[in-house]
């Protein structure tokens, strides 16, 4: 599951970047909202929902999380345990919520500009949160590989 979780990050990232760029362009160039604009947003949201599900399974089975939750006071003083148990999980939940709100607002937008604008802003915010919450290899003690090891 951790392997799937690690690989799925790339699917989430690629879709989130594509959907954000598409929405931003549509907003700025006063483009036409089409089925394919909506579909890209929907696929992005679905990829994040699957990642959420896999993340929960990883969370429940994780030895790291088990050791953290056995003594939360101590875990909060350990940057690695705190990151995976609290920060990573909470930030990803926020990002997933942002994508859901952005997609719902885009669907209900009064006109095409409103639809693109909602998706552009909420998806861009989600992208910033996701990038900040990934344990990239360069992140000192809590870094993990670019790909599953
Ligand atoms: C867009 C959402 C998410 C992305 C992109 C993401 C990405 C990642 C990545 C890249 C890793 C490191 C994998 C490795 O070791 O190679 C990881 C670890 C982890 N993730 Fe996520 N994650 C997301 C959401 C979540 C959520 C919602 C949860 C919990 C409900 C979660 C729980 C965890 C845990 C517990 C670990 C560490 C497990 C361990 O090493 O024992 N993740 N995540």
What characteristics describe this protein?
mainly alpha, 6 helices
Write the layout of secondary structure elements.
Layout: H1 2-28, H2 35-61, H3 63-69, H4 72-75, H5 79-108, H6 112-133
Helix pairs in contact: 1-2, 1-6, 2-5, 3-5, 5-6
Bound molecules: protoporphyrin IX containing FE.
Walk me through this protein's architecture.
It is a single chain. The protein is 79% helix and 0% strand. It has one domain. The protein has helices spanning 2-28, 35-61, 63-69, 72-75, 79-108, 112-133. The two termini are 13 Å apart. It is elongated and about 50 Å long. The mean pLDDT is 97. Helix 1 (2-28) packs antiparallel against helix 2, helix 2 (35-61) packs antiparallel against helix 5 and helix 5 runs antiparallel to helix 6. The protein has six helices and no strands. It has 149 residues and is mostly helical. The site of protoporphyrin IX containing FE has 27 residues, from helix 1, helix 2, helix 3 and helix 5.
Question: Can I get a quick summary?
Answer:
With 149 residues, this protein is mostly helical. The protein is 79% helix and 0% strand.
């Amino acid at each position: 599951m951790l392997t799937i979780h690690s690989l799925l990050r790339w699917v989430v990232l690629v879709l989130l970047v594509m959907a954000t760029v598409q929405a931003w362009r549509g907003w700025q160039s006063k483009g036409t909202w089409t089925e394919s604009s909506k579909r890209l947003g929907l696929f992005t949201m679905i990829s994040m929902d699957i990642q959420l599900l896999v993340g929960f399974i990883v969370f429940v089975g994780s030895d790291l999380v088990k050791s953290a939750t056995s003594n939360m006071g101590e875990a909060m003083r350990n940057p690695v345990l705190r990151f995976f148990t609290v920060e990573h999980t909470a930030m990803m939940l926020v990002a997933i919520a942002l994508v859901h709100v952005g997609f719902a607002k885009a669907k209900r937008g009064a006109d095409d500009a409103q639809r693109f604008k909602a998706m552009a802003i909420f998806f861009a915010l989600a992208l910033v949160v996701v990038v900040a919450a990934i344990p990239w290899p360069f992140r000192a003690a809590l870094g993990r590989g670019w790909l599953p090891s």
